[in-house]
Specification:
The chain is an alpha/beta fold. The chain is 26% helix and 23% strand. The longest helix has 13 residues.
Length: 295
């Protein structure tokens, strides 16, 4: 996988909104990124609005494209997620990144870009975005800095009683579960074979999570993984008649037959920690009395 050069003080980075429009200014994020010695350039979409989107599809495409094409820009950070990335993904020419790779950063709806880049063999960063920075923990923010500047990402998390213990190492893929499902069979779908899959989601019904993980399994995506990292599944909903199973039970009912390590409560997703992952990079997992993870 192609890895972009890590950032250094003085580098220019861009913030653009490829999906939903911003609700409030990004003063905290700009201040933080600037404090790391970065020169922050704002895209036209940052102040744009068209229905729920950060400008028209055309504007969002142009904004993203100009930052891909500008070789002085060393990283592109999505200001927020929401919905809209899939509306522009096929109009963007990512080929300049094959000769001049740069970090694409974000999570949630930005999983569309992460998967597309992984299909092309380019690493990216799943991490906090400007819209979520004001509510982030220090751990989440420091992990973003480390991911951008090339420091080792090391996490140790308490054991979950339903973890499937073991060790594994390999290339990490994934992101938002709903987005992964929406990309099945598309130009942005990838080969899961031999990979370590990370998943997270927000606001879903429990039965929908059951349906989605079974859809991934039926598509042949889960049987040859090396491991599964389960991040935050937050703000979940249930029916009037309870579904009856927890997220952990839903996932294990499908993947436990494959006998690879499964780690619950990895601190990433729609949570305040939302620790960074370098998607497409190598991850080492040792899941025992506690879980140690290194990117």
């Amino acid at each position: 996988m192609l890895q972009a050069p890590f950032l250094k003080a003085g580098d220019k980075i861009a913030i653009t909104c490829p999906a939903k429009s911003l609700i409030k200014p990004m003063d905290d994020a700009i201040k933080l990124l600037s404090s790391w010695g970065l020169d922050v350039i704002l895209g036209d979409t940052v102040h744009a609005k068209f229905h729920q989107f950060a400008g028209t599809d055309e504007l969002r495409t142009q904004d993203f494209q100009r930052f891909i094409d500008d070789q002085d820009i060393k990283a592109i950070i999505a200001a927020r997620g929401g919905y809209g990335s899939v509306r522009i993904i096929d109009q963007i020419d990512f080929s300049p990144l094959l000769t001049h790779p740069k970090w694409i950063v974000g999570f949630s709806d930005i999983t569309v870009f992460h998967m597309h880049l992984q299909k092309m063999g380019i690493q990216s960063i799943h991490a906090q975005m400007p819209a979520t920075i004001p509510n982030s923990t220090a751990l989440g923010l420091e992990s973003l800095r480390k991911a951008l500047f090339g420091d080792t990402l090391q996490y140790e998390i308490p054991a979950h009683p339903l973890n499937i213990q073991g060790t594994c190492h390999g290339e990490v893929i994934g992101g938002n579960l709903s987005i992964l499902i929406s990309l099945l069979g598309s130009k942005s779908d990838i080969d899961y074979n031999g990979k370590i899959l990370f998943i997270e989601d927000v606001g879903e019904h429990l039965y929908a999570i059951d349906r989605m993980i079974r859809a991934l399994d039926r598509a042949g995506k889960l049987s040859t993984l090396k491991g599964l990292l389960v991040g935050g599944f937050t703000d979940l909903k249930d029916n009037d008649i309870p579904f009856g199973f927890s997220v952990e039970e839903i996932l294990l009912a499908v993947v436990s037959k494959y006998h690879y390590p499964v780690v619950f409560n990895f601190p990433a997703g729609h949570i305040q920690d939302n620790c960074a992952l370098r998607l497409g990079g190598k991850v080492y997992i040792n899941c025992s009395s506690s879980t140690k993870i290194q990117f």
